């Protein structure tokens, strides 16, 4: 069966939210990979920032898709979605900030046929709203996130890239003696909130950086810390629903063949084996494992190599798009409807 997908980008750049800044291009790379392998698959795209809004509807009418995939959707007004549905074309939205923004997403997803959430534990929330929903985790573009040799500027014992959300502030203040003892790089925004900012300032690049730079810091680190956020740190998850699925950094760090020490999550070891990625539950456990893995180079490198193989096999955007297409092709509602 031929499948035609129309992709509408989020329009979010790295200055909007660094850790998800290049997912538009990564998803497009996945679509392109599928297109090269499947003669019965075609896709078209509309880039919110580059393309003129008035051209969206005519472009869709000309392409005649079987399904429209909207990524994140913050800049696509609801009346546009309703117009698309009047054309009898199913429209799905892939939301990727769950469960942190469930209150916002409750309104955002209303006009859509299908909700795709990156977090497995958020599925029941949308089901209770009466929405058709599937779980599709984030992933990685292995052509972009890859091993490479980097210069001294990017090398560190301990590296963290991300915004200073409350749990990270608390952890890094407590980790200060360890961070100062080792060569540390902390990169992202809002780190001036640290109580120990004056002590750690020399270790901090206090602003977001482009993904191309993030990759270099991952490659230069002995340990990349991946401290996941807490459930309601944006006050946009009033039911305090717990996040279960690892964040996109989990896959990106692994794809750089870098060793990572990550917050344990319920789904983590469904995606990776315990001998591939090290995890921690508490701050004390994190401290212990930083000490342990800094002094066990061979074990670090062996785990990172295994995670690298796993992520390239199972967690690319090509694989995610393939899984989405299988779902769409298996459900009558989303099959060819052009008549």
TrEMBL record:
Q: Which InterPro entries match?
A: YkvP/CgeB_Glyco_trans-like
The Spore protein YkvP/CgeB glycosyl transferase-like domain sits at 183-326
What is the protein name stated in its UniProt record?
A: Spore maturation protein CgeB
Native source organism of the sequence: Croceifilum oryzae
Tell me the classification of the organism that encodes this protein.
Bacteria, Bacillati, Bacillota, Bacilli, Bacillales
């Amino acid at each position: 069966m031929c499948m035609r997908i129309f992709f509408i980008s989020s329009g979010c750049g790295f200055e909007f939210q660094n850790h998800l800044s290049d997912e538009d291009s990564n998803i497009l790379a996945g679509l392109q990979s599928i297109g090269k392998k499947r003669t019965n698959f075609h896709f078209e795209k509309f880039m919110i920032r580059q393309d003129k809004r008035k051209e969206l509807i005519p472009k869709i009418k000309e392409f005649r898709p079987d399904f429209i995939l909207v990524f994140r959707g913050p800049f696509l007004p609801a009346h546009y979605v309703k117009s698309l549905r009047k054309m009898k074309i199913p429209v799905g939205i892939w939301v990727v900030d769950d469960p942190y923004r469930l209150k916002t997403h409750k309104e955002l997803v209303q006009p859509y046929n299908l909700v795709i959430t990156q977090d497995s534990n958020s599925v029941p929330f949308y089901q209770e709203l009466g929405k058709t929903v599937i779980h599709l985790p984030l992933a990685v573009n292995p052509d972009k996130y890859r091993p490479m040799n980097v210069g001294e500027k990017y090398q560190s014992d301990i590296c963290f890239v991300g915004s200073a959300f409350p749990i990270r502030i608390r952890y890094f203040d407590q980790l200060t003696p360890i961070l100062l003892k080792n060569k540390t790089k902390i990169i992202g925004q809002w780190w001036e909130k640290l109580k120990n900012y004056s002590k750690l300032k020399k270790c901090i690049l206090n602003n977001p950086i482009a993904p191309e730079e993030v990759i270099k810091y991952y490659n230069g680190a002995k340990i990349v810390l991946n401290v996941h956020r807490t459930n309601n740190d944006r006050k946009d998850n009033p039911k305090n629903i717990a996040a279960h699925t690892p964040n996109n950094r989990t896959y990106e760090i692994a794809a750089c063949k870098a060793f990572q020490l990550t917050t344990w999550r319920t789904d983590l070891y469904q995606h990776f084996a315990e001998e591939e990625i090290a995890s921690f539950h508490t701050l004390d456990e994190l401290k212990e494992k930083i000490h342990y893995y800094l002094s066990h180079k061979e074990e670090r490198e062996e785990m990172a190599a295994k995670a690298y193989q796993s992520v390239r096999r199972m967690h690319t955007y090509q694989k995610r798009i393939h899984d989405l297409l299988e779902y769409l092709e298996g459900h009558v509602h989303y099959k060819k409807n052009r008549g």
